[in-house]
Task: inverse folding
């Protein structure tokens, strides 16, 4: 009878984390940015039907990078949880924090107990009555949660893009300014300063609009993206 | 309901788009609570508040639905300003006559059901799909219907595929019937339907349709004691909803109030309402 090799817990966790990080690094990035009128989500995504950005509830949206089937699973579970909460109690009782907690527990359990961790990184964002009460939670493959302010970037080149955007981001940008900045950041994922050109057909854009009653999530389609970016005309 | 350590299996079931099916599996207590409300109000049906008359009229490019504001318990007026017409989603509305507790629960479940599908699938159900879904939900309450429950919805919406307003009525067994041009449900519906028949004309615009609805509700209130007329003293007017390509819109009190006052003024001169011309055109 052969004895299995001993693997230390440190090594086991490190291997799993490396595995998940590699999977995530293969995908294009997603930028989540607060601005004067709400929260903006921009993803590089040539598909118009396989979304990386989605509505969860009245004031809450979801953005993800990584393996599609895995984050799609999480998204659907989030919609179910939110709708169940809202139906059991009241629509106001569905919060981004509650959802982020449920995701964190789920991702954490999967990371330690399943044969393979989820290769995903997600953002749960809730738009508030004013910019101070906006909440942006970023969750990683192992269930850790970070409370983000201003800009959050996920995906392969998140360091490069995040660094670029952090230098240029300011509070109170208009939607057009925020979108221009986010697209500018996404186009610099090659590192070393050079940038690509990203057209509206390669972008998936959505907003949580602060002053929209009830369901505040709205997708911004190609034509409006061009208008906001000031191209074509 | 507590926060689970990990979201359990049913949350990850692929391909399920129905919220009520999900509810029955994950939170049978919540589903049962809704059912208990329905059973309780069915058992004490005489003591539970009842809503009364709903009317709907199609016009070119949409549909108008309106409901009076009265809820009754026996001969007592239980509430003067109850709302019986609700948005179901962006392009549909639902009005319910009958036991008020069941009606509001059914509406709430329908609203979540439609939104749930839209979010999970990333697309809206067709208008027929929504109407069928409501039929299934009514059928699920069939046992209660035999215990004396009566909550009959009227469903209407703008069909984005066919670019027109459509109206659906139901019976307690979940039977679904498409109605043409206009329809009414509730205790005053016999009188309202008579009125709608005479006042409706093909090719009306939204304003005409609103006026016809308010006239029909007046005629219902005129002859049915359970249907409330507009309460000018308190400023309580019928709930009037217009659904067209732009979506659901409930008329603000200023708009519905103006129509109500016009109807009341006209009735001062002719209490039975506009006369239907036997020979030719209306009015």
Result:
């Amino acid at each position: 009878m052969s004895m299995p090799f001993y693997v230390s817990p440190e090594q086991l966790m490190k291997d799993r984390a490396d595995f998940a990080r590699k999977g995530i690094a293969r995908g294009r990035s997603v930028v989540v940015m607060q601005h004067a009128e709400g929260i903006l989500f921009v993803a590089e995504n040539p598909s118009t039907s396989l979304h990386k950005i989605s509505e969860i509830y009245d004031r809450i949206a979801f953005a993800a990078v990584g393996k599609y089937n895995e984050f799609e699973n999480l998204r659907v579970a989030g919609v179910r949880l939110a709708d169940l909460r809202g139906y059991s109690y009241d629509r106001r009782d569905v919060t981004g924090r509650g959802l982020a907690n449920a995701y964190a527990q789920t991702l954490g359990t999967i990371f330690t107990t399943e044969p393979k961790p989820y290769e995903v990184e997600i953002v749960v964002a809730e738009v508030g009555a004013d910019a101070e009460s906006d909440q942006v939670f970023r969750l990683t493959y192992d269930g850790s949660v970070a409370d983000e302010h201003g800009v959050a970037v996920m995906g392969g080149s998140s360091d490069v893009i995040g660094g670029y955007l952090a230098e240029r981001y300011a509070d109170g940008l208009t939607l057009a300014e925020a979108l221009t900045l986010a697209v500018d950041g996404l186009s610099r994922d090659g590192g070393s300063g050079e940038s690509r050109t990203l057209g509206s057909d390669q972008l998936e854009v959505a907003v949580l609009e602060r002053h929209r009653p009830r369901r505040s999530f709205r997708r911004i389609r190609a034509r409006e993206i061009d208008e906001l970016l000031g191209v074509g005309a | 309901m507590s926060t689970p350590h990990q979201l359990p299996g049913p949350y990850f079931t692929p391909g399920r788009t129905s919220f009520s099916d999900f509810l029955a599996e994950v939170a049978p207590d919540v589903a049962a609570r809704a059912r208990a409300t329905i059973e309780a109000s069915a058992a004490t049906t005489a003591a539970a508040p009842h809503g009364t008359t709903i009317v709907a009229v199609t016009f070119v490019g949409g549909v108008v639905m309106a409901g009076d504001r009265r809820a009754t318990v026996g001969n007592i007026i239980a509430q003067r300003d109850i709302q019986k017409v609700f948005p179901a989603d962006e392009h549909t509305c639902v009005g319910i006559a009958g036991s008020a507790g069941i009606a509001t629960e059914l509406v709430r479940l329908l609203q979540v059901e439609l939104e749930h599908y839209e979010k999970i699938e990333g697309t809206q159900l067709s208008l027929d799909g929504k109407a069928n879904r409501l039929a299934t939900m009514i059928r699920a309450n069939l046992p209660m219907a035999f215990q004396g429950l009566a909550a009959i919805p009227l469903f209407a919406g703008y069909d984005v595929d066919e670019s027109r307003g459509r109206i659906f009525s139901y019976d307690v067994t979940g039977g679904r019937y498409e109605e043409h041009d206009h329809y009414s449900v509730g205790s005053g519906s016999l009188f309202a339907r008579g009125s709608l028949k005479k006042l409706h004309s093909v090719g009306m615009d939204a304003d005409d349709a609103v006026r016809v609805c308010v006239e029909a509700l007046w005629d219902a209130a005129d002859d049915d004691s359970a249907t409330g007329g507009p309460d000018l003293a308190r400023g309580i007017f019928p709930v009037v909803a217009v659904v067209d390509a732009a979506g659901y819109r409930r008329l603000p009190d200023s708009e519905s109030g103006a129509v109500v006052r016009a109807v009341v003024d006209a009735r001062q001169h002719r209490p039975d309402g506009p006369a239907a011309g036997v020979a030719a055109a209306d009015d």
About this structure: Chain B has a mean pLDDT of 87. DSSP finds eight helices and 13 strands in chain B. Chain B has one domain: 17-269. The CA atoms of residues 131 and 168 of chain B lie 7 Å apart.
